[in-house]
Amino acid sequence: MKLKELWQENRMLIVLAVLVVILSILGLTGMGTQSFVRTALSGLTLGSLFFMVAAGLTLIFGLMDVLNFAHGSMFMLGAYMGWQFYTNPTFLFGIAPLIAAFIAGISLLSVIQPLVVGWELSENWQKQLPNLLNIAAVVLGFIALRGVDFLGLADTAMVSIAVGNTDPLAEISAQEAFASFWFRPLLLMASGALMALASARPGDKTRSVDKSAAKRGWIGFGLLVALTVLLVLVRESGPVAVLLMNGDLRFFLALLVGTAAGFGLGVAVERVLVRTLYVRPFFIVLMTLGLSFVIRETVQLLWDPLAYQMSRPPAFSQPGKAENLLAWFSGNNTTVNILGVTFPSYRIFIILLGIIMFIGVILLMQRTRIGMIIRAGVQDREMVEALGINVQAVFLLVFALGTAMAALGGIGAAPFIPVSPAMGDAYQMQGFITVVIGGMGSYVGAFIGAMLLGMARAFGDYFALKLSLSPAIAEASTVIIMVIVLLVRPAGLFGKKE
Amino acid sequence: MENILEVNNIHTFIGQFHILEGVSIAVQPGTITVLLGRNGAGKTTTLKSILGLTPPREGTVLYDGREIQGKRAYDIASMGIGYVPEHRAVFRDLSVGENLKIAERNKGDFERKADFIFNLFPDLKRLYKLPGNHLSGGQQQMLAVARALVPDNKLLLIDEPSEGLAPILIQQMMEAIRTLSATTTVLLVEQNFLMASRLAKYFYIIDDGKSVHEGLMEDLVQDEEMIHQYLGTSMGSTGGKK
To answer: What is the C-alpha to C-alpha distance for residues A138 and A140, in angstroms, rounded to an integer?
Structure first.
């Protein structure tokens, strides 16, 4: 009885485990230990990257039924942000005060709200005024960003591609002169304030006014203005200080910066673009697809349509081979010996990053209240809302967490795949296939699906080379797996939604 | 006594369909009020309109003297309204314990209420660690009601608690609702007339999206003609829906 239950509960896992064991034995005997281990490690590396993209996709889809076609762009953008921070943070230090100023403007909402709620406006004005204000805000923002010379800002983003230069400041560019910079944060703050005024909906008497929120609003505004001023002050010295830091610490910070950028962008996209379209899922597909083009074009504008190679952090770039993982800790070598195979140590780091992220997702979903709400919301959003839980706030968090994970994947991948505007596309496609195989909304499914795809790619490549078949076989293998899984289990391996 | 809930002539649309065409209800604190009527008359939509899940397009809903129509459902629920939907919307992937804890509005809500809840539904204590999809239909229904008891709700909206339950479980559910009504006001939707008549003090009949009759339950029980006209012949049946 117990055995039967165990079988029914974990049928999928048991079948997969048996399959893995059989395939491993066949692979080990057929390929020899060396090539098998090397190929399997390559598969794990790819699988880890696929998981970082797929985890966010599956959570976002499971909870909100949103297919985010801009997910690959977040992966790409994370890579750019992290790489930029690592090699030439000038641009990031240049735009940080702009972002802070804009948020400071928006934070005035709770201050503006009580002032404008009493305005006497005709119904027509009440409807049109917010639109006009928003347009004005966008125009202001455009002037602020484009400015007299847009390229003045864009120039700071460029990197002088100096290969093999040991001077950490080799790739730094000069910050835009203050004389042409100072009006940008001011205009953006005004733009943010206009948007706040628009969302306060002047004259709308049904808005509830909270006096104590206005006080907190002033405090928040003050802090953000102080932050803006501080960021303006460190514009010049910040990049130099970052570049003179220990390389490993700088890389760690780059991971954080990339992730934070993904999170922030996720918040902005959900609040501004996705939220109004939940009732029309198809529009979201079109909107996110369009957004991905906008992001890519912007990136091409700033960095030119080139591919860059980010150098590995020092911890993975000392010449020579470490005899085992422990020896790597002291030697920081480029490659490490695993079961007799020489394997790049940075890829081991990617595998670890993927596993850490998977464990993080499990802990979040199983051990926290947020995770409990997400699991409940995947099944029945309405009931969660009826319990008094603000599902929209949870949506925002999940969306931002998803994009943050994709961005972290991007910066993690940057040291070994070229950083280019199209780098996210292939991973987004694999991410979608992973989600379909694993089952929409299941993070365990996403992990196993990602590993399955990674292995299929790696072993497909190996056999294509060995049997001199077309390498397209490896790429096709993922789609073939998807077709087989869908035929056997239409909802995916761990899918529950019908 | 001032009414805890007043629904005044609400009209609700779902898509293009005009589901409620004027429903008015008043619920006095500390009572059980039941909404009666045929399938599809608009009883469930009335509950959902009160809670803001299907917001009414016209009319007002007053809870505790405050207008709540047009507010978001989570805001309305947070004001102290619990909801037990039909079809036992228990979260299948959550354990029984998690199903209860997710309803907490303040930390520790569940611990304070645990004894009260397990007294009403002793089974749940035994099933505490099982996932929601392992429960039988009756156990899920108990869990759905128990979940609404975790926070300090002043008003419970309970939709068809007896649906599909075995007679012995209906008895237990009735006892539970009677016990909890000592501390909470209840607005009930119930097809099982016998159960409704034993529990409720007041009734409203909803027909074709309108509230057409109201009064004391004890009067309705005598009025066989009205029962026949609006409710069919379900009088005296104990087995829930046919």
So the answer is: 5
